[in-house]
């Protein structure tokens, strides 16, 4: 007997729970279906070395929950501040186990609807209904389907000798198993470096290879690039301690006697070299699993095949009413902003919920009097405290519309920028974002000038864009602030007053403005 | 009165290392140690307990000389049991384990150390040139040669009005809870400052680090005293906007705000807006390093210091520039290679101390400098050097600072080991008319460390930034030729092309010609699909194309 629900969410990870929370708030009919026996089950095993890279800063000096969320990258959004990841650990980088506990407590606390131990093995579409079939044959029907299954399938290279390699998920994490061995680690992301760091003390030699060169998060501002806490391995190469980092791509692995021979192609020399080693560990990331979908609703994938293609509203480009939530959302802002992580996608999901809400235009908004001072205060308050636009810089934005006829200002919070553009929400509005200026790859981020009177700062700074008839006609910049808190220094307010003045009386020319 | 030929002050790693060599030769010496045990510095420092010197126990080789390249803590000794690997399994060992190692080393080597002998004054007789050392204000000892191995133990306090409001690294509270939800400023941007910052990350609300000098990463500069990767986590918390910040600026003044009871710091940012800024903190921690302590020396016996006043001035033989027979051993030796090679660390100064010992033996016991002899044949020299480059640890660790000198005679080469490069340059006549100077070189990458191509032509070694051997040839006191051996990814120079290139260089020198690299030859064979493939064995590594 098939069960019908308006909305079905597949996966009870952080994203599934977050979506369920918002649907429940709006009293929508929904159900989470989870293959394991509990919420957040992915975090039982991953990350393999157990330390999360998402910060858990318990002490911020701020009392507002919204401001605290800027430095709490693990909590989900909720209507009260009873349930915070901060209460599960005081460690800056907590153990992954806390996510499992937190997710299950979150589910219980908000009394979310979920069915466990039901593995969805097949998804097809019949008319405008999705039909989901579980391993035991149970069927579920729904109007709208949310895929929140995360990325759990390893993205392994198509090479000869794959069976001779271990992977991030299958390799032993006990350093004693690698005593005096030569290990080749394939990949240069956080999982590769976390694996290498765990083995530096017991291995004889670690070679790390990957076609691209190492990218540091502190240079790119993308938290998925190599994090400082994982980069110790670099010193062991550049301070000549036997290990190496190579810009080459693994082509094949063969067994020769009691050792493995890994063939690596170096594009810089257009040739292969062979490396003898004892173990090869592939740390080459994860990809989206689309095998459950029938042809009539199979989502189109990105050219690399690792993620489903989606619109700016996170809807499949090929299957209507099929939405992607959670880390898969990174397809829209891959390697730029934080949709791949809880602290990014929790705000995306809040935005998606508003996109889906047909009863209101954008419920997270405020309306206030047409008054320069009030507007100045609102903008400064938002850029100094709001979590969404801060954690998703340039990806989520605030919009405000000056309604002169009714003498009021309408101010929308945390709107996906591209969605606003695609939906023509920006005909005659102002857009507020926090952004980094893209900087030259040769600039040293550890020695970068801040606020030297350049028009636009390199570090995170507020940008206000003025749109007329859908076109950006002007950009205003505020200087960066050491504390990312523009409430502290009077000069920030003065500058913001000038901008607002110029917005109200549009012909005033002010400094630090760029006409596009 | 007790008299010794040599007195060493300080039973830290350097004092112990020198005593070890003196003991081996049964010289008349005594080590004076203020505390109750050797290595007491490491019972307190680094404050957070972790050493930055690696203890790589698995290298794939049994050669103890080679293994010292990856063991930055052990002292030099014939006794194979005296290795740090037997005292800690950690890659970055705990400092207390190192202290325990030093204690054992002193005991097992039967060194003549007197503990709880606190030196209160050092003076020197103008006539007899004999040093008199007052211990605990009363007993006096005398010696002809004095070695200061006290390390850099006195906190360096920057000259800033109000600096006394800052708590020093040496005395700060280590409990992170003390700093819970507080704003903390750390003065300094070295490893001690960042180790402190990292320790407080989970509890402080805001942490800022400040110093006038921009950040230098060890992986860029190749100097292990610059910021190490293991300590750099803090920078993510700045660049990923997690409240903390790293600032380049000069502090002008510090005072306490009587209303808020907070500490106010006024500073001039080096580049931000060029305006004076003023910020308030709950705690200001001073992590601005250490300096040499001169308070022990009497008025007549004040050693000359470097212009910055942090270190004693010394010659290339580690002797005071103004007080003859006063020598320095240990971290103080960094004055000679400040922020370049590793004299500030055990893995650098253990070799310097051996070199100092050889200077003392040569000067005061008329012992010849340790050397060996090889035939003056280009091929034999090339083979001998390639083997040597694959295992020698002293030149490897002290690249650009310690050098070997190979003096040419008609039939033979006399090979002298581990001389300070500066000393060799200052004493060219000592080595005769024709000699080679051999050392390692490593240097920062131009541009970005992470996007740096490595050359693969054996005759283009000059472009190398990674560690590689360099040979200079001197004729009549002038350098007339120089050869850079190509770097090797696995630091294995036994491959034929390396030996051949060395041999070609020596042949040219012996023929009295300036060395010219031969025409490039395509030695490799291409297989059907046009891709060249080689099997690279551990012993014949041919990859030089690695790019970071």
Global outline of chain B: globular
Radius of gyration of chain B: 26 Å
| N-C termini distance of chain A | 60 Å
DSSP strand (E) fraction of chain A? 25-35%
Low-confidence stretches of chain A: none
> What's the main sheet of chain A like?
7 strands, mixed
Averaging pLDDT over every residue of chain B, what do you get? 91
Give Rg of chain A in angstroms.
Answer: 25 Å
Summed up, the helix count of chain A is: 12
Please count the helical segments of chain B.
Answer: 12
Percentage of residues in helical conformation of chain B: 10-25%
Q: Give the structural class of chain A.
A: alpha/beta
End-to-end separation of chain B in angstroms reads 62 Å
Report the oligomer: heterodimer
What is the structural class of chain B? alpha/beta
- Strand tally of chain A is 24
Mean pLDDT of chain A: 92
Strands of chain B, count: 22
Biggest interchain interface, per-side counts: A-B, 78 and 82 residues
Helix content of chain A: 10-25%
The major sheet of chain B is characterized as: 7 strands, mixed
In short:
The complex is a heterodimer of chains A (516) and B (548). In chain A, 21% of the residues lie in helices and 25% in strands.
Structural key phrases:
heterodimer, A: 516 residues, alpha/beta, 7-stranded mixed β-sheet, 12 helices, 21% helix, B: alpha/beta, 22 strands
